Amino acid sequence: MAGRKPVHLTANAKRPEGRQTMWEAIRKLRKFTISELETKTRLKEGALRSYVEALTKAGYLNRERPTERVNGAFPRATWSLVRDTGVEAPRVRKDGSQVTHGFGREQLWRTMRIIGDFNHHELALQASTEEHPVAVQEAAFYCQYLARAGYLVVTAEGGPNRATRFRLLPSRYSGPRAPQIQRIRQVWDANKQEVVWRPEDGGDE
After folding, report:
1. What confidence category does residue 43 fall into, taking pLDDT thresholds of 50, 70 and 90?
2. What does the pLDDT read at residue 5?
3. How far apart are CA 115 and CA 72, in angstroms?
4. Does the chain have fewer CB atoms within 10 Å around its N or its C terminus?
5. Residue 165 C-beta-side C-alpha neighbours within 13 Å
C-alpha cells in the first residue's frame, strides 16, 4: 500500500486532500493570515487564497479588513473561522456554492456503519434524503468496490432472486471521510491518505 503523501504533493486546491489539509489547519488556527496558513500547511499561496475566498463567500470564514495604517501601510487581512462544521473539509466552488458531487457516497459510508447488515437496495433507501437521493445502482457499485477493498464482508451470497448482503467490518472503519473510487478504479482512503486497493490486487471482474 502507498504511504501518506508528503504535504507538498497535495498543493492543488481542487484535490480533496489539498482542501482537507487547509481545512484542518484553519480549524487549528481559528484566526489567521494567508501567510500564517501557508506556513502551517506548506501549500501554495494561490491555492490557499482560492479556497479561503470560497470559504468566506460560503459563510465559513469572516474576513477582517484593517482600517488603520501601521507604519504607513495597512496590515494584512486576517480571517476567522465562524462556522466550524467538523472534520470534513467543506466542498465549495469559487463563488461559495456547495459542491454536491460525491454526497451520495458520503451518505452511503455513514449509513453502512449505522444499519449493520444490508443489501444495496436497503442501503440506498436508508442513505437517501429528500435533498440527496442515492440511486440503487450507485449503492451497488460502491458496495462492490468496498468489498474488494476489504471494508465489507459478505454475510449472504446473492442469487437470481436475492441481492448479496454485506456488513461493514468495524475494524475497517477508518474515519468519517468516505473511501473514494478513483477514475482508474482504485480505492483511496481519505482518512488514511493512502490507496487501499488497486485492480491488480485481484477481485476486479
Report:
1. very high
2. 42
3. 62
4. C
5. 8
Instruction: Name, in order, each residue with C-beta under 8 angstroms of 11's C-beta and a sequence gap of 6 or more.
Output: 18, 43, 44, 47
Cβ pair 146, 153 in contact under 8 A? no
- The pLDDT, as a whole number, for residue 74 is 56
Instruction: Write the burial class of residue 23 (CB in 10 Å: 0-12 exposed, 13-18 middle, 19+ buried).
Output: buried
Q: Residue 88 — very low, low, confident or very high, per pLDDT cuts 50/70/90?
A: confident
Question: What is the rounded CA–CA span in Å between residue 177 and residue 77?
Answer: 32
Beta bridge pairs of residue 156: 165
Q: What is the pLDDT of residue 141?
A: 96
Alpha carbons 139 and 204: distance in angstroms, whole number: 17
